[in-house]
Specification:
Strand content: 25-35%
CATH class: Alpha Beta
CATH architecture: Alpha-Beta Complex
CATH topology: Nucleoside Triphosphate Pyrophosphohydrolase
Shape: globular
Number of strands: 7
Order of helices and strands: HEEEEHEEEHH
Number of domains: 1
Strand order of the largest sheet: 4-1-6-5
Radius of gyration: 15 Å
Distance between the termini: 36 Å
Amino acid sequence: MDQMDFLNVIDKTPLVSIDLIVENAMGEVLLGKRTNRPAQDFWFVPGGRIVKNETIERALKRISTVELGFELSICQMELIGAFDHIYNDNYYGEPGINTHYVVLAFRTIMPEDCELKPDDQHSDMRWWLKNELRCHAEVHPNTQKYFSI
């Protein structure tokens, strides 16, 4: 889909996405500092859009492979819930067009035998204590909500 078509989709419909709440054995949560809009320059859980005709299971595998560097399957995940994420901007920075995501949030414990290989959508990735990320100004409020429920 070209930029104008996708911008029209962003303007007219909600997007469906998956967020990955990845914890390590110590209960810390993996966050990446986003390089793209929306939520650019905020710390956020890894995630991505589900594309047309892609099953949730296939999207989980693709998103985890791209964002983390290893594949997670749906049997390793726990559905936390569905959330609305509404942003005042959009991927392209086009004025006057906001973005609405309907997000399926899944939680998992990172397998010990996996090594993180993040992509270029994040300038940095790090593990956060839950009580630290809940109140940190650089952690996006949509990520903080996952830890206040």
